[in-house]
Design goal:
The protein is of the alpha+beta class and 148 residues long. Helices cover 28% and strands 30% of the residues.
């Protein structure tokens, strides 16, 4: 069983400051559409909570918040090597309509947030993040720099 959670974020549009796209992970049967980055983060957080991947580090104080805002049906599949390989191949072959594609690896969930790395596939540039907010800032920095 993997200790990290993997996601692919395909940004499809950015209009009036709103980012829309598709989220995929090897644990999902199909991609999930998101309509803004807040919704994206909520969906990713729910997937990690549901599957406890990466395992939440309980040694640190945390606040449990019931998410009332998420109205997305998540359909999981068993995580097998075969599914993971299909996911990686599918992620690299995202449709040309995608403006940008990011691969995200969440390695830790502690201090009530996430730590991991994000790779922007267009440039193969990788950055590490220490929180979900920093992850959002990294995505916005690409949008601000390359799509204004």
């Amino acid at each position: 069983m993997t200790k990290e959670m993997y996601f692919t974020i395909a940004l499809l549009s950015y209009e009036n400051g709103v980012v829309c796209g598709d989220l995929h992970s090897p644990v999902l049967k199909k991609s999930i559409q998101f309509h803004n980055l807040t919704e994206l983060i909520l969906i990713m957080d729910q997937i990690m909570k549901d599957l406890n991947i990466p395992e939440y580090d309980e040694r640190y104080h945390h606040v449990i918040i019931k998410n009332q805002l998420l109205d997305v049906e998540l359909d999981y599949q068993e995580l097998k090597q075969n599914n993971f390989e299909k996911y990686l191949n599918r992620s690299l072959m995202y449709p040309k309509k995608s403006k940008d594609i990011f691969m995200v690896k969440v390695m830790y969930r502690q201090n009530n947030t996430w730590q991991g790395k994000i790779t922007w596939l267009r440039t193969n540039k990788t950055r590490f993040f220490r929180s979900a907010l920093e992850l959002v800032e990294l995505i916005y920095s690409v949008i601000d720099k390359y799509h204004k």
